[in-house]
Amino acid sequence: MAHILNFEFQDVKDILAEAGLKPFKAKQLWDWVHVKGVLDTDRMLNISKADKAIITQLFEFDDLEISSQQNATDGVIKWLFKLHDGHEVESVYIPEEGRGTLCISSQVGCTLNCRFCHTGTQGLSRNLTAAEIVAQVHKARSVIEDWNGRGEKRNVTNIVFMGMGEPLYNYDNVKKGCQILMCDHGQGFGTRKITISTSGVVDHIADISESLGVNLAVSIHSANDETRTKIMPVNKQYNLERLIGALKE
Question: What is the C-alpha separation between 104 and 62, in angstroms, rounded?
């Protein structure tokens, strides 16, 4: 049984239909989870007890645990979220005038060992699922009380994959997570409001513009291959020529 946050809207409709529930039940469930921010089925007041019994047999609804939370004087909040298997990932909320950016993780740890990043010293434990990617946004918005209804002003306006891990080494789950977050029936983040930050992994760069349409940010740190390799060992595999060529395509 997979987590409710791991599914796109059409998937939820199909699964509920196979279980004998009417199509509007999927819309009700999706609205509770992705518009009202509710994962406790007991709080889903317009869904009958009988339907809830079926739904809880089809999906998991566990919430992320907060291992630690650090609040800065400028409004920045840094979380360490605990996953179901005990692993932990970081997310950071950065409020600014007129916008609020949430930096989220894509992997538990990282393989790249960039000199400027502590995560690389931990090694890679595993990729995050799409549900665990979406769950970071869900939990952060819950903590800062950001579930104001569809079309209303929100505190989290932008999402950046700039936490732990290299997003393009977990592209399938990152892509699915983005599609769930962009769903018009739910949280409705626009393509221009999501940014995938990569250390320069050439694979999937073209896919971002062709199949997702979200923003791309690339860490360069040096215009010299030798220097960049010392800072970012990934440059050995994806040097500046390959990287620039991929960006031009």
Answer: 19
Question: Which numeric CATH code is attached to 65-248?
Answer: 3.20.20.70
Sheet containing 158-161: give its strands across: 65-71, 77-82, 88-96, 99-104, 158-161, 194-198, 215-218
Give domain 2-60's CATH number out of 1.10.630.10, 1.10.150.530, 3.40.30.10, 1.10.10.10: 1.10.150.530
Beta carbons of 15 and 3 less than 8 angstroms apart? no
Q: What is the pTM of this model?
A: 0.95
Amino acid 55 reads I
Which residues have CB under 8 Å from 246's CB, separation 6+? 202, 205, 206
d(CA 116, CA 98): 30
User: Which residue shows structure tokens 């239909």?
Assistant: 17
Q: Which two tokens stand for residue 240?
A: 């500046």
pLDDT in tens, 17-68: 999 999 999 999 999 999 999 999 999 999 999 999 999 999 999 999 999 9
29 within 8 A of 47, measured Cβ to Cβ: yes
Task: Express each pLDDT in 122-168 by its tens digit.
Answer: 889 999 999 999 999 999 999 999 998 776 789 999 999 999 999 99
